């Protein structure tokens, strides 16, 4: 993975983990300086130049307000974070956040879907994620209809086959 992608992905993971939609440039400058020091051909002193270059040339970062950095769209942030968690095989962390019911759970759900769809995701992770997301979506649909998941299936109501993840999951309202 090239350095630019590594730096942007690191920012995405940090923002998702912290539940942030934006960072101040001074916050990101410090994180970037530490990360640059890890590269053989870079130094922490380059953080200012590198951050400016990422803002100007990456195509997915922007400066919406003076001294603020965010992703042009949250989908970029969630995709990059999902790729990271898939590569790290962070199944438990993703499940924990998706089912926590916290304010950021919806963002974590999208990160989890990107992780499950990644070519870097282990097969067991994809199966567990598919089942968990379908179960969660079914519960959400039932809650909206004021019917429990167990009441949906009975002797006269056979269980429906689970919908594909892409269909079962969307819920932005």
Question: Layout of helices and strands, plus pairs?
Answer:
Layout lengths: L2 H16 L3 E3 H12 L10 H11 L3 E2 L5 E4 L2 H15 L2 H8 L6 H13 L5 H22 L4 H4 L12 H4 L5
Antiparallel strand pairs: 1-3, 2-3
Question: What features would you describe in this structure?
Answer:
Helix 2 (25-36) packs across helix 3 (47-57) and helix 6 (105-117) packs antiparallel against helix 7 (123-144). Strand 2 and strand 3 (68-71) form a beta hairpin. This protein has two domains: 3-72, Arc Repressor Mutant, subunit A (Orthogonal Bundle); 89-168, no CATH class. The protein contains nine helices and three strands. Residues 137-173 have low confidence and may be disordered. It has a three-stranded antiparallel β-sheet with strand order 1-3-2. The chain has 173 residues and is mostly helical. The chain is globular, with a radius of gyration of 19 Å. The longest helix has 22 residues, at 123-144. The protein is 61% helix and 5% strand.
Based on Cα principal axes, name the global outline.
globular
Bin the strand percentage. 5-15%
Give the SSE string.
Answer: HEHHEEHHHHHH
- Report the helical percentage: 55-70%
Look at the structure and give the mean pLDDT.
74
Number of domains: 2
Our count of helices gives 9
Low-confidence blocks of residues: 137-173
How many distinct beta strands?
Answer: 3
Largest sheet: 3 strands, antiparallel
Strand neighbour order, sheet with most strands: 1-3-2
Strand-pairing-aware structural class: mainly alpha
Quote the distance from N terminus to C terminus. Answer: 36 Å
Determine Rg (CA atoms, Å).
Answer: 19 Å
């Amino acid at each position: 993975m090239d350095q630019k992608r590594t730096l942007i992905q690191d920012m995405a993971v940090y923002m998702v983990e912290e539940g942030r939609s934006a960072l101040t440039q001074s916050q990101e400058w410090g994180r970037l300086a530490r990360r640059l020091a890890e590269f053989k051909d870079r130094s922490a002193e380059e953080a200012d130049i590198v951050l400016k270059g990422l803002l100007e040339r990456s195509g997915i970062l922007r400066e919406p307000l003076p001294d603020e950095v965010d992703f042009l769209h949250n989908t970029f942030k969630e995709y990059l974070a999902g790729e990271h968690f898939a590569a790290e095989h962070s199944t438990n962390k993703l499940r924990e956040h998706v089912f926590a019911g916290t304010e950021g759970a919806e963002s974590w759900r999208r990160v989890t879907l990107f992780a499950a769809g990644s070519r870097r995701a282990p097969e067991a992770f994809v199966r567990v994620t598919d089942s968990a997301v379908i179960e969660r979506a079914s519960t959400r649909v039932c809650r909206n209809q004021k019917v429990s998941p167990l009441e949906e299936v009975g002797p006269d109501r056979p269980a429906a086959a689970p919908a594909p993840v892409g269909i079962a999951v969307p819920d932005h309202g």
